Amino acid sequence: MSQSNTRYFLPALAPLYASFHEFAETLLRVLVGFLLVLHGAPKFANLDGVVGMVESLGFYPGAVWAPLLAATETIGGLLLMIGLFTRPAAFATTIVLLVTVYFHWIFKAEGFAGAEKSLIWAAVLFFFVIRGGNAHSVDARLGREL
């Protein structure tokens, strides 16, 4: 059912929901991007530790995968924050998060409890793979997106 056809229990709230729709989506995209930057940037300071971690998962050579992981999270997060190349950035970071699901669920044998956060992150990022950046993004300002 589309939002315009939605019948609310409290119809008076419809204008409030409509007025905050774009803001909420933009806030989510910016916050997720910011948190990815916070998570990814420190990996550059400890690439040797990240090399060991990615190699323990079977990603060889770790010297290639570790900086790619750090860059995907950091640069992908920056791109999401500003809404530039939103879909590719969200796609790349979704893949990273799906690997972390594997890491926690299978490799560390933590099951759902260990992978739950990564599943939520992956779902939010997948939302932006499908949705794109919205009107408050560089993609929209450029009038083009992938």
Can you describe this structure?
The chain has helices at about 15-45, 45-55, 60-80, 85-105, 110-130, 140. By secondary structure, it is mostly helical. Helix 1 (about 15-45) packs antiparallel against helix 3 (about 60-80). It is globular, with a radius of gyration of 18 Å. The two termini are about 25 Å apart.
Q: How many helices?
A: 6
* Order of secondary-structure elements: HHHHHH
Number of strands: 0
The poorly predicted ranges are none
Roughly how many Å apart are the termini? 26 Å
Q: Portion of residues in helices?
A: over 70%
Secondary-structure-derived class:
mainly alpha
C-alpha-based Rg, rounded: 18 Å
Shape: globular
Q: Mean pLDDT across all residues, rounded?
A: 94
Portion in beta strands: under 5%
Largest sheet entry: none
Key terms:
single chain; 146 residues; mainly alpha; globular
Write the layout of secondary structure elements.
Elements lengths: L13 H32 L1 H10 L5 H21 L3 H22 L3 H21 L6 H5 L4
Helix pairs in contact: 1-3, 2-3, 3-4, 4-5
Summarize the structure in short:
With 146 residues, the protein is mainly α. The protein has helices at residues 14-45, 47-56, 62-82, 86-107, 111-131, 138-142. Helix content is 76%, strand content 0%.
